[in-house]
Amino acid sequence: MFCYRCGKANEDDNRFCKYCGTMIRPPAVVVPEDLNYFPPNPDALWAYYLGIASLLCGITGIPAIVMGIRGLRYAKLHPEARGEVHAWVGIIGGALTVLCVFMLIIGVVISACL
């Protein structure tokens, strides 16, 4: 292994260059085997955030529904990722927002016709 700073050859198991002292190989990171890390379900997380945002401001309902459906599909293909609850929060929040906006539009149209 060659040092990237001074360019001199070192043994492969050296962590530091024996000529200039620069770290040439970072220490190994040991992850415990009992650590249950589940990769996130990005679509479900987006659905969750968009669903909450749609309930607060009423403009992101349809994207929340779409991302929620994608999140459910991802959770079905990758059960270790989970995220079904986040996806459902996005779908329900988005659907409620779309329903409220639709009812508001119908109310405005009816009141304009009267």
Task: Please tell me about this protein's structure.
This protein has three helices and no strands. With 114 residues, the protein is mostly helical. The chain has two domains: 1-30, no CATH class; 42-113. Helix 1 runs antiparallel to helix 2, helix 1 runs parallel beside helix 3 and helix 2 (61-77) packs antiparallel against helix 3. The longest helix has 30 residues, at 84-113. The mean pLDDT is 87. Pfam families: Zn_Ribbon_1. The chain crosses the membrane at residues 46-66, 87-110. It comes from Victivallis vadensis.
List the helices and strands and how they pair.
Elements: H1 42-57, H2 61-77, H3 84-113
Total domains: 2
How many β-strand runs? 0
Q: Percent of residues in helical segments?
A: 55-70%
The fraction of residues in strands falls at under 5%
Q: Shape from CA axes?
A: elongated
Provide the gyration radius in Å.
Answer: 26 Å
First and last CA, distance: 83 Å
Please mark out the parts with pLDDT under 50 across 5 or more consecutive residues, or reply none: none
Instruction: Please state the average pLDDT score.
Output: 87
Q: What's the tally of helices? A: 3
Helix/strand order, N-terminal first: HHH
Main β sheet profile: none
Subunit arrangement of the protein: single chain
Structural class estimated from helices and strands: mainly alpha
